[in-house]
Structure formats: C-alpha cells, structure tokens
C-alpha cells in the first residue's frame, strides 16, 4: 500500500470514528411523527391543598375537555416547596422523550405572593418520561441562580431550537436591573433538562411594566409570514412573531380591540396564554385564563396568525369538571393517546362503604376526620373511588375521596383521617389495604392494613380506627360492604 493511500485510509478511519461519536451525542433531528388524533392538557387547579400539582385533561377536538384520573392529580411534587404551578409539556423532536417543567410554588402552604415573588424558589421542577405515562421522580433545577438578586423562577416553557440543536427553556424572574425591580423573561439552553447554560435576558418591557407569562408556538409553513409566534401577558396580551427562537421579534399587536387585556387595558382581564394548533388544519386556538372573574380558560381562534385582527372568539367549548389554570397543550398521536387514556382515562365507579353491624351508617369524612354516620350530608362526604393500592402491592386498594380528589383515607397513629397524598412511601403504606373476606360475614369485606397486617379498619364509638381484631364485637365492627 502506498503512503498516500495509507494516509487516506487513516484519515477515513478517523472521520468515521468522529462521525460515530458525533452521532452518538447529537440529538436526533425532528422526526415525522404519526398523524395527531387528540390533545393532552397539563394544568394545575388553584390554591387548594392539592390544587398546585399536575393534572391532565384530554380532548378529541381541541375544544371539549375531559378530566383524566377522575379529576385527581397525576403527579405530586415532593421537592422544593412541594407544590407546582404552570406546567409545560415538552416532546423531543424524535417523539421518544417527554418532560414536564413547572414552577416550584405552593401558595396553599400559606406563602404570601410578596414572599413568593421576592424570596421564593429560583428552581424549576422537572419530570421526565419515555412514554407519557411512566414519569421519573421530580427533580429541582436552579435555573435562576445566576441572576443577581433573583426572587423567583415562574411560568417556565420550553421549545426545541433547530438553530442551536437543543431546547430553549424560558421563564420569568423578578429581580433588580438598571435600578428597576420587576419580572422579566430569561432563558437558558439545555439538551437534557439536567444541565443548563447560564441564564440570559430574553424579554424585557419598558419602564416598570413586568412580564410573567409567555408562550411560543412553532407554525409549520410560516402561516401568517413567520415561523414562530409568542403571546405574552405584559399588561396586554401582546402577540409577536419571529423566524428564529433567539432572534429578533416583531410586535404584531395585542387583543385590546377584542376587549381583552392583562390589566392595563381593562376589559376581560386574562393571563396564562396557551397555544394549540388544531389537528389536520391550519387553525390555532389561543387559550386565555379569565382569572380576574374566575371563569377559567376561554379560546380565541385564528387561521392566520400574522395579525391580531384575525382572532375571533368562540363559544362552543367545555373545560371539564375542574378549573384549569396556566398550563400547556400537547397534540397526541394515536399511540400516545392510547397510552394516556389506558392509564388515566377509565372512570372508576363511586362507592359508599356500609357498616355491617350498623347498616344505616356509612364511612364518611367530616372536617377530615373519619367516622360512620347515617343520612350523610352532603352525600359526597361518604363517596369514594376504590383505586389500586397506592403502595403498589397486588390485590390491594386505596380509598380516594370523591369531593376531595387526591385525598385518601389513611391511618395515622392508628386513627383515621382524610389526607392529601403527599407522594411519600409512608403515606402510600398508610393508605393501602388488602380487601379480604368479611371477618363477621364472608359475603361482606374487611380491610387489612398493608403496613400493619395484624390490624384492620374498624369503627369504635362510630369513629374509624385501625385495630387488632380479637372478639366478635371487633369482627362486626371491622366488616363492611361496598355499595353504589
């Protein structure tokens, strides 16, 4: 072999190794996903005990929504403030990985808005999945740590940026800059939602005007003249456009001509703009949360995003049983939709738990204590959904309240209470029971504790307890029947 050929062969081998290494670490280019068939919304519901967690809703047409998981939360934050708001659903370009990124904030714990904005968490909460139904444990990412005087990190969003071959994650932080303290939008880049670049200023409005909520939608074919559009709550609902995520943006206008603003223009005061394209057609919905009146989300529609004058109101929509607060919408393929509905779409029946030896009485919660009573009012206080045991053991059950979704019957000090699932293994064990043949009658049922298997649910002076059962009275007290 000649020296020239030998050198050429060596260079070719080196090039192959370099290419293989590059291919191994470079994210896949955007893949042509299967046709979209449905829609998934991630949201929170408000400042109730379990409202600041991750909820999901499903729609076939993008306008009429059904609560998933029987209206209960599907993911609970066990990190940071132990509450989350403003969840963003993110799909990888190849459609093989998903993330939820959310604000680390729990107002229901008693935190004031001033403390949350000025002395709050500067981290975001992240979950990761490969199938949209099995999610990692939540983790904190301190994205705003590099911002001088940062008071918080709110309302995160993320979008794939082909120009940099990674994701742009953007959020609002309240901090002082040039002598003015207010919320501005900052961004960082990431390829894995674990390691982030240093934060950079992304959007700043003039004077003292702050900006918190902003969301970008990518428009295939540049309908309206641009590839990207963003809507921001900055006193108005301002719509801007660009052909580059990190490039310059052109202001197209706001919604003041529709009587809609974020406060500066009065009228219908809204926040939390949320984009969604309708499947199979060039039409978009911009969902706006009517928080000032408590009426929840409303859609305005457009077939051409190039001008805010093209938007129109739409009255034929339904948001499901729960109030939906600032979230995001993901268009679903048939395979994704099947997985999501298979996991959270089934509707569990509503049951009451009837006492065996005092048959006019039913298990009910009252001020979060648990007892058996006759003539329960309101009736929902005695209604439960029987879920697979939270501890995950085969053949076990947990009892979820109908009127307090996310709250379960659990023992604490061998007394019973209705408590919010905090996501811990201790809670799961305390709220899990094995249904066995009734101790007083085999045609009824008794419920054996998962983590104290020598004890059973029983009533004593009409109050629910977890006790060992040693006599006939106890066997009667520990026997129940599930009825509709």
UniProtKB/TrEMBL annotation:
Looking up Pfam families in the UniProt record yields: AbfB
The alphabetized list of GO BP terms reads:
L-arabinose metabolic process
* A Gene Ontology molecular function term of the record: alpha-L-arabinofuranosidase activity
List each copy of the Alpha-L-arabinofuranosidase B arabinose-binding domain by range.
352-481
Domain of life, per the record? Answer: Bacteria
Q: Gene3D superfamilies under this entry?
A: 2.80.10.50, Glycosyl hydrolase domain, family 43
Keyword list, A-Z: Signal
Segment forming the signal sequence: 1-23
What name has this protein been given in UniProt? Answer: Alpha-L-arabinofuranosidase B arabinose-binding domain-containing protein
